[in-house]
Prior knowledge:
Oligomer: single chain
Shape: elongated
Number of domains: 3
Order of helices and strands: HHHHHHHHH
Amino acid sequence: MTQEERARAYLIKLFKHRPRSRYEVLTRLQQKGFSREVIESVLEQAARAGIVDDAKFAQLWVEDRLARRPRSRRLLERELLAKGVALEHIQQALARAGLDEEAIARKLIAERLPRLRPLDEQTRLRRLAGFLRRRGFSEEIIYRVLKSSSLV
C-alpha cells in the first residue's frame, strides 16, 4: 500500500466518526507522519470529491451545536475558528442558522431552572448567569433574559 493510499484510508477513517475541517485533516495527517506532498494530494482529491469542504463543515457544526448543546454566536464562531475554518464560511453558516440568542438563552434557562428551584433567588440567578456565561452569552443578553424572565 502506497503512502497516498494509506493517507486516503486514514482520511476515510477520520470521517467515519464525524465531519472534519480541512485544517483538522491536515493536522491529523501531519501527526501520522505523511509527507507534505502526500497530504496536499489527498486533501485536493478529497476537496474535489466534496469530502473536505469547510463551508459544509461549518454549517453542519452550527446545526449540530444548536440542536444538541445550544450556545451563543460568539462561542460557535470561536469553536470554528479553532478548527481552522475561514471566517467567511463561519459567518455564512451563522447567517443561515438565523440565531436568536435571546430565545436560545431563554430555552436554556427553562431547561436548567427545575434543578435550581430549591435554591434561594440570589443563588439561582448567580448560577443561571454563570451557566449562560459558559455558553458564551454576553452580559447584556444575560441581564436582559434574566431580568425579563418570569421563570426566575
